[in-house]
């Protein structure tokens, strides 16, 4: 039986940002993404979760090549796009799009809704205005908006409606992979559920593949087939969603799950309180990066970086104590 090939393959990806110093000072770097490897398969949703500053957004922006990568490899649809030129990236982005977090700042207030959504069609050579109009109206219908919004401006819409417009703009080229960067975190809870259900329906109808980034574990559990947990630029655990929530192995994953609210006020919780602040990505700790906050810390944890290994089918973890905690 032939092994299924991933739509996207990321190998040891690193994205560092230089920090300018004074005369005579050695250059230093922020290790925003520091050695991430993952596969994403067609029609699945891979969730990425972690606290603010762990590198989730930078990873997404590196995959779509908004940010230049320092080293590593990105293969998309069987092609190495790590060092793709601007012309090559234009073709690649027909099949890879991103939905940004803030629907207020990611849309141009000077353009009508129709112009915003049809702009990718113009960039990619759809010259017939009637064809563009038909495609935009169809996409508006798919995201739950009426044809009359075509000539309206962004300030006339609510946050949920603006995010629907953002989704329409990202999907107008019918991409294969969509990066959802905190796509619902700026919305009210009631609107979040509507947008999540919309994304789920669109995935089924258009055969989409998602990388869904969030800091909310309940959202990740709802939308994802597999979940990767990021900490300080690295993926520390990756597993099928049910497996990760029922059998977390990394202490950081355990701490995240222990902080998820439950609807029963009488249910006892064993919350894991992490002490200290997230270390600086400019100077990450030696050995296991989590050892400075880990409640199960042992002397070996700071001696060497833990191996990222498969401990059970499709369940990967990077922890010296994965079988002990």
Write the layout of secondary structure elements.
Elements: E1 8-19, E2 28-40, E3 45-49, H1 56-63, E4 71-76, E5 79-80, H2 86-92, E6 96-99, H3 113-123, H4 129-142, H5 159-171, E7 177-181, H6 189-206, E8 209-214, H7 217-223, E9 226-231, E10 234-240, H8 241-246, H9 251-258, E11 308-312, E12 315-318
Parallel strand pairs: 3-8, 3-9, 6-7, 7-8
Antiparallel strand pairs: 1-2, 1-4, 4-5, 9-10, 10-12, 11-12
Unreliable parts = none
Structural class category: alpha/beta
N-to-C SSE string, H for helix and E for strand: EEEHEEHEHHHEHEHEEHHEE
Percentage of β-strand residues: 15-25%
Number of helices: 9
Major sheet details: 8 strands, mixed
What Rg is obtained from the alpha carbons, in whole angstroms? 21 Å
Say how many strands there are.
Answer: 12
N- and C-termini, Cα separation: 37 Å
Q: Please list the strands of the largest sheet in the order they lie side by side.
A: 6-7-8-3-9-10-12-11
Considering DSSP H and I runs of 4 or more, what fraction of the residues is helical? 25-40%
The dominant shape is globular
User: What is the mean pLDDT?
Assistant: 89
Describe this protein's structure.
- There is one protein chain.
- The chain has 325 residues and is of the alpha/beta class.
- The chain has helices spanning 56-63, 86-92, 113-123, 129-142, 159-171, 189-206, 217-223, 241-246, 251-258, and strands spanning 8-19, 28-40, 45-49, 71-76, 79-80, 96-99, 177-181, 209-214, 226-231, 234-240, 308-312, 315-318.
- The strands form two sheets. It has an eight-stranded mixed beta sheet, with helices on both faces. Strands 2-1-4-5 form a four-stranded antiparallel beta sheet.
- Strand 4 and strand 5 (79-80) form a beta hairpin.
- Helix 4 (129-142) crosses helix 5 and helix 5 packs parallel to helix 6 (189-206).
- The longest helix has 18 residues, at 189-206.
- The mean pLDDT is 89.
